[in-house]
Amino acid sequence: LLETKRRLKSSCLDKQILNILWFYYDVYNAKTCVKAALQNKPFDTISSLLSSYGAIDKKQIRDFAFSNYYLSQFSLAKTKAENLYSQFKDIRFVDFVFDKVLFEKMLQWSNELSSDLITDLIKKWIDVNNAQISLRLDGADKNEIGEYILIPGGNIPVKHFSSHGEESKMILSKLFTAND
Q1: How far apart are CA 142 and CA 14, in angstroms?
Q2: CA–CA separation, 114 vs 46, rounded Å?
Q3: How far apart are CA 21 and CA 19, in angstroms?
Q4: What residues contact residue 165 under an 8 Å CB cut-off, 6+ apart?
Q5: Residues near 73 by Cβ (< 8 Å), separated by ≥ 6?
Q6: pLDDT digits 0-9 by tens, 124-174
Q7: What is the Cα–Cα distance from 25 to 22, expressed in whole angstroms?
Q8: CB 56 within 8 A of CB 71
């Protein structure tokens, strides 16, 4: 993996594209560690699950999740995830909160790149992610916590993923058709 990472760094013309990729793996590592910490699992039991592709050292992410090490990219998300987990006792909320951080940052970077192709891809990915969240949550959860975990900025307004009406069902079904 590290050789692949080195090759990507040397061949990619726009390093901002790589920042999106590295951040994806940093988020994955952070949420894996935070979930383990919340469930009182020792780091050693999950360390093999972490990716070497991220930009942040795995030890820093470990210290962030299992102690009070501050990572500016993730500290607010960790607090939100801990609060939602404490309230609902559902580990999925760690994924949802950290994924929101991921997609918001990816959308910001894609806009900075001024690439319609990448921005469009990120927006569609946001819509798919919101649809997955919507389908994974029951009605009570959607109403209560949708604002914390649904991601704005996609092609479909967030309100369509947090409501329960026929219009929302129609939009979700169109999202998964093969015409786009």
Answers
A1: 38
A2: 38
A3: 5
A4: none
A5: 23, 26, 56, 101, 105
A6: 999 999 888 887 776 656 666 777 788 999 998 888 887 665 666 666 666
A7: 5
A8: yes
User: 161 with 139: CB under 8 angstroms?
Assistant: no
Q: Is the dihedral of CA 114, 120, 121, 122 positive or negative?
A: positive
Q: Structure tokens of 131?
A: 């649809």
**Is pTM beyond 0.70 here?**
yes
- H-type alpha helices, 75-138: 75-88, 92-113, 116-136
Q: What three-state secondary structure class fits 63?
A: helix
Phi, psi of 157 (to 5 degrees): -60, 145
Residue bearing tokens 């935070």? 34
Report d(CA 180, CA 178) in Å as an integer: 6
Tell me the two tokens of residue 49.
Answer: 């699950």
Cα 12 from Cα 118, distance rounded (Å):
15
Tokens of 5: 């990472």
Rounded CA separation 137/177 (Å): 22
CA 40/CA 34 separation, integer angstroms: 10
Within the chain, which residues score under 70 in pLDDT?
A: 1-2, 5, 8-14, 138-144, 163-180
